[in-house]
Amino acid sequence: MQNRSASKGWSLAGALLIAFGVAACETQGLGQSDVERLEANIRLPPGAYRLDAYARFYAPPEVYALDDLPFTTILDPAPGWPEPRSEPVVAAVFVHADGIVEDYPAKAYLVPETELPDLVHGGCHVVNLILDPVTGETLESWCNYDSSMPDRRPPE
User: Fold this and answer.
1) Pick from 79, 56, 50: which is nearest to 66 by CA?
2) Which of 11, 67, 136, 143 keeps 20 to 30 A from 76, CA to CA?
3) What is the reported pTM?
4) Positions of the chain with pLDDT lower than 50, given as ranges
């Protein structure tokens, strides 16, 4: 009986932590209605799966320099990325929900930037996005490096 109460206590604590995490993101300028607007305008890169096939992680808007973007794979230089950037952007990482790379349910998550998935490879199982929080426009999107594909670089 005592274990059952402890279990309920932990469930309540977990629910409060999740609720606080979502509320913290919402107070930092990104809420569920913003995510719905962003997702209505998402432009996925060639080779990506359908939007609803991904666990979609969104960090609150922030001003980033190119070198500070929270991605493991980035286009270099990112086309159209103005330096210095003065307007905030939403950094997002989508992970295919088939469990090959990671096992996340396919839905939207509002997370602090430090909790964006940190996955290095995976091809289009992992998609990185830079989104405009004001217009909802996808500024840039690309798939992670696909280590299963042959290297197509010319020999040195």
Assistant:
1) 79
2) 136
3) 0.73
4) 1-25, 27, 150-154
